[in-house]
Design brief:
This protein has 424 residues and is an all-beta fold. Helix content is 0%, strand content 44%.
Length: 424
């Protein structure tokens, strides 16, 4: 089995679109990729296209001889001129797959050559630096982010005494090797700024960190027991709940909150828009509760949830779920300033995206396929696009450009089809 790394660019329609549908060919039945085989396979990177060289200009023909004329005075010879290097070779380009939804074929779709694309060069990189930290046990970094000033934020887990910069933290349950959570900040040159740690009587873990437009920091994770974060006590309602803790750039805790049902939730991805609205996706069983909102699972397995939280009140705005006959999970998401969001899902057998519109993804069997779903600011589906092949596919990262284009990265095995384009 071979697992390849792929890059996908999906052009999203404007937020006003209300089209719903899927596109692409039916997906063949295959075998689910075995994670245990990863160490035994080669990882291929999608190659770039061959470099194209612009041919040299045609030589200028010799001028016709002129008739004899009166001799002219001798002139000093012209010194030799160094030849000008040929700089006409075109740079390498990376092919981009266009998987624009077929639900609005007449819409004006921006391309990478449009003037609406942000062509400003990125800021100059900071001086490279290295900052080790750790302790007597095991530590693992789960996520990183940076703010507008170049400050870096790191989240992860530890299970014994840990020292980060000038701060030392003990685990909540010394000697039991249960993972607890930490968040730390360093400036753009690598100097330590601040750090916090928190945990519960059972294992807890952050999975991602984000920064909003005001450089406030958001840490998202899961906990299996009541957990104290600063002065806030987060009650666990089931076997595992979702938590979010927010700090300002200086490390002062702004708020902390958790959500969950009677069984358990497994969060996988976090997105925070420029206004500080929070979006989380993952999977749940039984029920999902957030403030005054409760949704029930429709099947017996894991189902996809998307939770939206107001950045000012920290109250849940809505919960959207997607149900299938297999094991389903939200793997990545990204949200814009208007609270529209795009969610990447992984599913096997089938996944009901919008029952009212009779919109269902179908993997054709037990192999795990994927899809992209766009929802508006109330959680209603705007469009959806499935992708996959005879193997297994999963999107593990999403980002959104200033013009609404979506960029995705993930993994696939065997052959995968994206909007009519096949990757092998």
């Amino acid at each position: 089995m071979r697992i390849s790394i792929w890059l996908l660019a999906a052009v999203l329609l404007g937020c006003g679109s209300n089209d719903k549908g899927t596109s692409g060919p039916s997906l063949d039945t295959g075998t689910v990729a075995d994670v245990a085989d990863v160490a035994d396979v080669a990882v291929d990177v999608v190659p770039t296209s061959d470099t194209t060289t612009i041919p040299d200009s045609a030589p200028t023909p010799d001028s016709a001889p002129t008739p004899d004329s009166a001799p002219t005075p001798d002139t000093p010879p012209v010194p030799d001129v160094e030849p000008v290097p040929d700089t006409t070779a075109a740079p390498d380009t990376v092919p981009v797959l266009d998987v624009s939804p077929d639900t609005a074929p007449n819409a004006d779709v921006p391309t990478m050559s449009d003037s609406s694309v942000d062509t400003n060069p990125p800021p100059a990189p900071a001086t490279p630096w290295y900052q080790p930290f750790g302790g007597a046990g095991n530590e693992e970094i789960k996520g990183t982010a940076a703010d507008s000033m170049g400050n870096v934020y790191v989240v992860g887990i530890y299970n014994d005494t840990i020292t980060i910069g000038t701060e030392t933290f003990e685990p909540v349950e010394p000697g039991k090797k249960m993972s607890d959570s930490f968040v730390a900040s360093f400036d753009s040159q690598g100097a330590f700024r601040w750090a916090h740690a928190f945990g519960a009587l059972q294992a807890d873990s952050p999975f991602e960190v984000h920064v909003d437009g005001l450089d406030n920091v958001y840490v998202a994770g899961s906990h299996k027991a009541d957990m104290t974060v600063g002065t806030d006590v987060l009650v666990c309602n089931g076997s595992s709940d979702v938590y979010v803790v927010s700090y300002d750039s200086a490390g002062t805790q702004l708020w902390a909150k958790s959500w969950g049902g009677q069984y358990g939730e497994t969060p996988r991805a976090l997105s925070v828009n420029t206004s500080g609205d929070v979006f989380i996706t993952g999977s749940f069983q039984g029920s999902m509760e957030a403030d005054s909102i409760t949704v029930l699972a429709k099947g017996g397995g894991n189902e996809v949830f998307v939770l939206a939280v107001d950045g000012v009140t920290q109250e849940a705005l809505w919960i959207r779920t997607f149900t299938g006959n297999g094991s389903d999970v939200g793997t990545a998401l990204v949200a814009d300033k208007d609270r529209n969001a795009v969610i990447a899902v992984s599913y096997n057998y089938d996944l009901v995206v919008d029952a009212d519109a009779n919109l269902t993804f179908d993997s054709g069997g037990s192999n795990f396929n994927g899809g992209l779903i766009r929802v508006d600011d109330t959680g209603n589906v705007l469009w959806a696009q499935e992708y996959g092949g005879p193997g297994a596919e999963e999107i593990i990262g999403l980002d959104m450009g200033g013009n609404g284009n979506i960029y995705a990265t993930g993994v696939f095995s065997d052959t995968a089809t994206f909007g009519g384009s096949a990757l092998v």
